Amino acid sequence: xxxxxxxxxxxxxxxxxxxxxxxxxxxxxxxxxxxxxxxxxxxxxxxxxxxxxxxxxxxxxxxxxxxxxxxxxxxxxxxxxxxxxxxxxxxxxxxxxxxxxxxxxxxxxxxxxxxxxxxxxxxxxxxxxxxxxxxxxxxxxxxxxxxxxxxxxxxxxxxxxxxxxxxxxxxxxxxxxxxxxxxxxxxxxxxxxxxxxxxxxxxxxxxxxxxxxxxxxxxxxxxxxxxxxxxxxxxxxxxxxxxxxxxxxxxxxxxxxxxxxxxxxxxxxxxxxxxxxxxxxxxxxxxxxxxxxxxxxxxxxxxxxxxxxxxxxxxxxxxxxxxxxxxxxxxxxxxxxxxxxxxxxxxxxxxxxxxxxxxxxxxxxxxxxxxxxxxxxxxxxxxxxxxxxxxxxxxxxxxxxxxxxxxxxxxxxxxxxxxxxxxxxx
Length: 426
Fold this sequence. Notes:
Blueprint: H1 2-8, E1 16-19, E2 25-33, E3 39-46, H2 49-65, H3 77-89, H4 95-113, H5 123-135, H6 140-159, H7 167-170, H8 188-198, H9 204-213, H10 217-221, E4 228-229, E5 234-237, E6 239-241, E7 246-247, E8 267-268, E9 273-275, E10 283-286, H11 289-309, H12 330-344, H13 353-364, H14 369-376, H15 383-390, H16 395-409, H17 416-425
Antiparallel strand pairs: 1-2, 2-3, 4-5, 5-10, 6-9, 7-8
Helix pairs in contact: 3-4, 3-6, 4-5, 4-6, 5-6, 8-12, 9-11, 9-13
């Protein structure tokens, strides 16, 4: 009898299946160990043995693949997202990336799907949230940001065994309208009108770095004089200016009643700059002759401002500063760009559109792709995708292609004078 019991004993890791007194089939599936080292088993019950065996095999497969839910109380979506954004994402991503995650979690995801258990969240729950967001007036791009955040956060939950599937990876975000991200770069005529207006303003070289070389806002505002070599006519891009973030400094005893950014005793809690994260972003950029002249003039003007301000001047080594020194605020810089467009009589556009303009001009001038990638700061692996996004085929380029086709097929004689007139009209 003892030998028979020994033969029927289950091997380690084998599930127990039995018929219960309630008439249902039950199973105990070994899933590993709890945090305290004690064995952890999942209890399953089904009305028939076949149904139970199928479920046991599915759960054993998840266990063996490492995708089964771990022991302990299941996370709600809200608790997991809040834990993920503060304790997992924040220490390893940039400040700007964290800001995007935090807003998506706090404003959209937690109120919209936070009450669901993370292991019971379905793609349809997310798709319903995206529809509600759009009905409330959010753009498709905002829903896409929430979708990307959820996909990243839930992907980490799956890797850690808190959920068996990533519902956001299965969900379909709303369709982005083609014209929502459509960018029309500024024409050469518009750039020249901006140049005329820029020459009347303080920090004039700041805008030409964007329009001529495509520097990003953070790259330009983070530029220091030690990065600029006017004798050899190039500059080095090594860091990005970050958006300031403030906390109250007034104290709970006498609160000012304002937002932290407007508190009279506000305290900045974010560093001013961060190093460029990619190798392609850390690059040397050639300076055209007129820009060298503008930067020399800017250096002299800044020296005069420093001498006039005296003790009121804030030393910072930044190329572009406030009237009394210190780094420019990205928010102030944005509003300066909007006023520049208005004063120059140029159509409204994003500050980032200047980067699209610079890339398109480089292509129009026939600059080789590799050089464009260097100037724009694009990684080799994704450069082709970025060129497709930033380099726009303009009407003059299309007309020139049509003239070449005409000459090749119909043998039309070349007429440089006519071509020049047509280019001027374009």
